[in-house]
Amino acid sequence: MGNRLRAHIVPLLGELPAQSFATSDAQRLIDHLGAQGFTSTTIAQYLVLLRKVVMHGVHTGVLRDAPAFPKVKVRSQPRGSFSVTEYRSIISTARSLRGHSHPVLDQLSAGERFWIARELLVMPDELPWLIRWMVNTFVRPSDIKLMKNKHIEVVRGKHVYLRMNLPETKRHSQPIVSLRPAVRVYECLLAYRTEHGHGGAEDYIFMPHLKNREHALAVLNFFFHWVLEKARLEKGPLGQSRTLYCLRHTAITLRLLYGQGIDMLTLARNARTSVNMVERFYASVLSGEMNVGLLQSRRGRTS
After folding, report:
1. Per-residue tens of pLDDT for the chain, all 303 residues
2. Which of 30, 82, 146, 288 is positioned for an S-S bond with 87, CB 3.0–4.6 A?
3. Can you tell me whether residue 161 is helix, strand or coil?
4. CATH label of the domain that carries residue 92
5. How many distinct structural domains can be found in the chain?
6. pTM exceeds cut of 0.85
């Protein structure tokens, strides 16, 4: 919210006297964001933020009432999840880039600063683990910056999985259960972290040496984008720009495709989302032919 205020709302409307704010000013923001190429969903989110500012003015007595806000018709567009082949490709690409310096270093002159410190502009060893982790745990990128070792428990019984008691996100606080491959990823990562002095309960799982967690997530996004560029997978099937969030979409989409008999309620609760969100943004990209075997299956006869 702070980033959005500073990036577009304050530069466009910051000098406007509060008492002069009108519906036409909200429309100005819509037109400005539309010219920047923002989606209807993002524009609607900016309007929500602007309305919060205006209502704060009403609650504090600066404004008598809030003017009407224009309506933005939101067109839901699923993020570009990865196919199994694409998923394998980005893991392979991330592994091949480990230890390599980012090309931006060659473009910087001596002493020139970049938003990432020069010593960090080397592909970290953990990025392939991060990719596999997200596809096998259903977590959001915002969870990545908060996860510590103390939040993770390895469960070995009839099933082997990780029980993740993560901090509350989007009003969801229930534990998340991972797929089995996530256990191997975590054990390898934890061994690596312990070897480098970051294996304690209070240590962050990814980028533990960066105390600014917003910056840590931004750096991971930066390197993931480099992997996508190298693999030529920056865009989804509908032309969507891909980010780390697409790995969460991949996790849920692959479970819908290959999870035998899984129901949407169980999947939604474990992914800390709603069935409605799964249907709108995840299941919407699936076709009947993708699960033709399940469609044609028959219940066994009972004697």
Report:
1. 888 999 999 999 999 999 999 999 999 999 999 898 888 888 999 999 999 999 999 999 999 999 999 988 766 556 678 999 999 999 999 999 999 999 999 898 888 889 999 999 999 999 999 999 999 999 999 999 999 999 999 999 999 999 999 887 666 678 889 999 999 999 999 999 999 999 999 999 999 999 999 999 999 999 999 999 999 999 887 778 899 999 998 998 888 888 777 777 888 888 888 777 777 666 554 444 444 444 445 556 554
2. 82
3. strand
4. 1.10.443.10
5. 2
6. no
Measure the CA dihedral 233/235/238/241, to 10°. 140
* 156 sits in which H/E element: strand 152-156
Contact 78, 85 (CB under 8 A): no
Considering Cα of 104, then 197, then 132, then 216, what sign does the dihedral take? Answer: negative
Q: Which domain holds residue 145?
A: 84-287
Amino acid residing at 69: F
Query: What does the DSSP 8-state code read for residue 152?
Result: E
Q: Is residue 175 within 8 Å of 165, Cβ to Cβ?
A: yes
Residues 24 and 97 in one domain: no
